[in-house]
Amino acid sequence: MMRSLATVIAVESNAITVSCQQLTSCGHCASRDSCGTGIVSKAIPGRAHQLTIKTQESIAVGDVVEIGLAEQSMLSSALLVYLLPLLFLIVGTIIGQWVFVDLAASSELGVIAMAGACAALGLVIARHIAKRIEGQSAYTPSLIRVLGAQISNDSVINAASKDSD
Prior knowledge:
The structure is a single chain. By secondary structure, the chain is of the alpha+beta class. Helices cover 40% and strands 24% of the residues. It has helices at residues 36-43, 71-103, 109-133; strands spanning 2-11, 15-21, 48-54, 63-69, 142-149.
C-alpha cells in the first residue's frame, strides 16, 4: 500500500477532508545541487491535494493522519493513462501508413494526422474509463491511522536532516 501523511482540514459526520502535499523524488539524489531540475523543484513547491475520506473515527481539524492507496489501483491507473493513448498512437500510425502511403500513395502528412487523431481518441477513451472507475472503493484512499496533532513549527526537534553515515 502506498502511504502518505495528510493534515485534516475539515471534519464532517462520516468523513474528513485532508490536504496532502505532492512530493517529488527529484532533488534527493547526490547531484541535486548541480542539476537544473533539482533546483527548479526546490523553487516551485508541490501542489496540495484535498481528498475526502470516509471514517467513523473521532478526528479533529489539524490532526495529522496517514492515508493509503493500494498499489494495484495505482498501477492500473498508470497503465490506463499512459499506455492506452500510446497504443492508440501506434495503431493509428500503422493504419495511417497502410491507408495513406500504401493504398493512396500520398505523403506522410496523412500518417501523422491519423496517428494524432488516434492518440487523441485514446486520451478521450482513457478519460471516460477513468471517470467510470473513479468512485470504486479500490481507487479511493483509505485512512490507515491517526497520528495526532501537528507538531508546531516553533518546536525544536533534535533530529538530523539527513541519515548519518
